[in-house]
Amino acid sequence: MKKLLIATALLFTAAAHAETTVLIEKFAFSPKEITVAPGTKVVWINKDETPHTATANDKSFASKALDTDDKYEVTFANAGDFSYFCTLHPFMTGTVHVRAN
Amino acid sequence: MSDHEPTVMNRRAALGCLAAWSGAAVIWTVAGGVPRALGATSNGTVAVPKGVFTFAQISDTHIGFKKEANPDVVGSFHRAAADINGLQHKPALVLHTGDLTHLSKPEEFGQLKELLTEIKVDRVHTVPGEHDALDDGLTGYLKNFDHDGKQRAWYSFDQNGVHFVGLSNVLNFKMGTMTSLGDEQLAWLKKDLAGVSKSTPIVIMAHIPMWTVYAQWGWGTADADQAIAMLKPYGSVTVLNGHIHQVLQKVEGNVALHTAMSLAYPLPTPGQEGIGEPGPVKVPADKLGKLIGTREIKLVRGKHDLALIDTPIDHA
């Protein structure tokens, strides 16, 4: 019983700390679409010399303008499809699909 | 090294090529009510008749930018200011068509404000670029550049018989679409123009091009057609834009639209082969000065178009 509890706790910890990175480079989000489990932290990093933002279409999240190498993190607690764009360059778009296993 | 000894042909070919997608200083003349570009010269000088009203346009100074494409944007500004101060015919005013700063930081606005005092003119007018509206909208911009004290980025004024209008098209960005002026501003423009006679020359300044240069890169203004329609009945309309860091123009009846060079760094031509995105173009240090610069504009009484001279900061 104790062993099982520990295993569950470890699994939970692993899920809570899941992290994935989206690079912003050459005026595009890369990858453009990602699918993650609830509780995953998504980290955007701007590799361009031009500032960009990652801003949800439904305004559920919005970064400040990210200069070169600036990072922005959002932890997605709930399942759903979150489309987002760069408010400075609205032709730059991406989607985070949050799916429970 | 052949790099240091370009042949005349190579140099000419290079300059011709550069001229096609960059501009420098454009000199505008308003003669007889119609702004007209005087044309490019290699040394920025031009014979100006008496009684001519001239003004200068600068754009996209991106103060705060320190990357490889131009590690010294302040140095570039100093050179442009010296060029404008050296003009034979002193311009009455300077227009800055946006992207004053790179990141909308208070110290960047402060530095540009200080730099602008280097130019020996009575008035400097500005419109915001999207780089001046980061994070907290136009708050930082308007703290420094609220030209009519009304806490908004659009305004008009008259000088030497010309009606100048500054517009803002850098706040209404929506997913997957081009920027727009917005209904409130269009309504204001209609009201503003109602008091202007059809024979008055009009100069419009706005950061992002007022025509669709390249939609894929957002180089256009979705509702600009509505503004242009309001301007069509006027005898002389000149629209001055920035944003795309290169000289392009379009003429629609009496409305002439022009984009200007940047004072910071070049951008690719629309859809330029081998470059998939509108990011700063890195060129060798000795080439940069050919791709950035200023514009002088003259208005000559009795003529119906403005004269423009674009001058790169490297001219000899």
Structure keywords:
heterodimer; A: 101 residues; mainly beta; Immunoglobulin-like; four-stranded mixed sheet; 1 helix; 15% helix; B: 316 residues; alpha/beta; Purple Acid Phosphatase, chain A, domain 2; seven-stranded mixed sheet; six-stranded mixed sheet; 7 helices; 13 strands; 22% helix; disordered N terminus
Could you please describe the fold and organization of this structure?
By secondary structure, chain A is mostly beta strands. Chain A has one domain: Immunoglobulin-like. Chain A is 15% helix and 41% strand. Chain A contains one helix and eight strands, in the order αββββββββ. Chain A has one helix at 2-16, and strands spanning 19-25, 28-30, 33-36, 40-46, 55-56, 71-76, 80-85, 93-98. In chain A, the strands form two sheets. A four-stranded mixed sheet of chain A has the order 2-1-4-6, with no helix packed on it. The longest helix of chain A is centred in the first third of the chain and has 15 residues, at 2-16. The radius of gyration of chain A is 15 Å and the shape is globular. The two termini of chain A are 25 Å apart. In chain A, 27% of the residues are buried. Chain B has 316 residues and is α/β, with parallel strands linked by helices. Chain B is globular. Chain B has helices at residues 8-21, 73-85, 106-116, 139-145, 183-194, 224-231, 285-288; strands spanning 26-31, 34-37, 53-58, 93-96, 123-126, 155-159, 162-166, 202-205, 237-241, 249-252, 255-259, 293-300, 307-312. In chain B, strands 1, 2, 3, 4, 5, 12 and 13 form a seven-stranded mixed sheet that branches. A six-stranded mixed sheet of chain B has the order 6-7-8-9-11-10, with no helix packed on it. Chain B has one domain (2-312): Metallo-dependent phosphatases (Purple Acid Phosphatase, chain A, domain 2). In chain B, helix 5 packs parallel to helix 6. In chain B, strand 4 (93-96), helix 3 (106-116) and strand 5 (123-126) form a beta-alpha-beta unit. Mean pLDDT of chain B is 86; it is low at 1-24 and 39-45. The A-B interface holds A 26-28, 48-51, 57, 64-65, 67-68, 83, 85, 87-91, 93 and B 65, 67-69, 102-104, 130-131, 134-135, 173-179, 216-218, 276-280.
